[in-house]
Amino acid sequence: AGFLSTRLKTALATFARETFFKFGYxxxxxxxxxxxxxxxxFLPAFVALYGLVLLLLFAQSAANRFHIRWRGLGDLQLxxxxxTYGATMILGASAMVILGQVDIIMVGRLxxxxxxxxxxxxxxxxxxxxxxxxxxQRLLQPLLAxxxxxxxxxxxxxxxxxxxxxxxxxxxxxxxxxxxxxxEMDRLLPEEFQGLQWVILTIGAVKVLQGSALxxxxxxxxxxxxxxxxxxxxxxxxxxxxxxxWMIPESGLGLGLLG
Length: 259
Hints:
Elements: H1 2-8, H2 12-33, H3 39-63, H4 76-110, H5 116-127, H6 131-149, H7 153-180, H8 182-188, H9 197-212, H10 214-222, H11 228-251
């Protein structure tokens, strides 16, 4: 998908992959629920769906003159850089995984486990504001990597500025729609999941601000300063914990300030 996004300069490959996979997963879930597919066959069918998506992407890439270098990396210096970069990304990503779950853990610890489902529902609704990020990131990463490789500073900063503006406007618009529709959501949700509009707004606002920094985040991760992502991500974890210790008891329900 990354190669096709760079080659075609469009998110069509990502859209096709996401759309095909989601519809395939929906079909499998429907078949399982209707009894047309047995539980033992569901997991193999799910793995086969992943394999089919991979084959489709590989076939499209091959049609656009993609080839695999079977001899690997002969340059030991380059191989060492790849390993260092991979280890750095793993350490940085592990901090983001903790950051995404620390709110739920602390809500259950500081309040009660009964509050966790309500917070989870609110966080899930607020996460909808980050939908544009997922689609745009798949397109931005290869394009930004290409401009950095070509040392095209003008194109690099154009992409970063475009990302900041687009993600802020798109995410803000979605959050505004969510906030306006919270009364209608309360009519559909059970009583214990109602009245979460302030939690949704707070988490959503942070998600929008976090998403608006996508361009700088990707640029930092693909630049020579990528090691700084470890410190930044773990610093957010260190900041989220004391903020949650303060805000969760005060609000009565976690506000998810950084998760």
